[in-house]
Amino acid sequence: MIYAASCSGAWAQGRASVTVSPVSDTPSPVMLIIDGKVVEADSLQFLRGQQVMVWLRDLETLGWGKTASGESGEVIFKGDGVTLSFRKGEGLAKVNSLAVKLPVDTYVRGGRLMVPLSFVAKALGFSCEIAYKPVASITTNAACVSSADANTLQGKVVYANKGIAGITVRAVDKKFNVITGAVDTTDADGSYAITNLPSGEFAAYVYTGDNPAYFNRASEFSALSDGEVSSLKPIALGRILSPKNPKPGDKVKSVNGLITLEWTKCDSASSYEISINKKGDDEHLVTITSKETKAQIAADKLKPGTIYEVEVLAADANGDFLGGTAGTGGKPWQFTLQSQ
Prior knowledge:
single chain; Copper Amine Oxidase, Chain A, domain 1; Immunoglobulin-like; 3 domains; 7-stranded mixed sheet; about 45% strand
């Protein structure tokens, strides 16, 4: 029985498009076919998971590029407009300035640094098919595009319909894996441009870890190839509001039958909607609106000893969302009502 795996442009997104086969981890010889002709390459080894490993010096002999030693133990392979950098025993490689996940870690065998053949082939713009026989078939005139085409994502980041400066924006793949090195910071009018992207499908991503005042937000995904520049729709940010009183986890007593809530201000907000739910229940027990950053709620619908969650949503004059407290830092705003 033959198990086949097709390799596409997915290398740029940090994963290989392969089918795992019931083959042991022991390397076995491989027949290499390039543009329909059998080629000698003694270093090739076939691993479980449909991966063929190759010594870069063999690819140099084939005329695919030149091998050189880099800093701190790096091995560099320079092809046509593409520079690849590998390290022994690592699962990441650099494609020009981008760090990209390999389908399998590199290793040294017989003093030779072995790297995934499919990764190198696709980085150079070739197509690659690997079969269980095992046979590695490379087509060098494939309609694949190398990372040298310098694709670009561009757009704006806005808050309250105005561009916002100083926001870190990253490129992510379809699984929201961050493409290392693919990053920009918005300028005075909120514009960004993430350049030198390889071919693939990407989105622009604003991450709370980079921008702690704002919720995670992403653009639509855009397929890039042939040096394309893709202009994305504006990314509208929402501000994270923080609880001030009571603090998350506090035990609270009502005063004259009322509980006072207070939170941080949301710029440009005209009103705040406050809702109270029992922990683990989506039903709103209390819902009120305030124009200030504090409100008092009646405690008559709440039971002592019960944990409640508070959600505050900020809106502009048109009722559009501007920010909120829900899930701030991954921890909802909760309090426990105490008996009087």
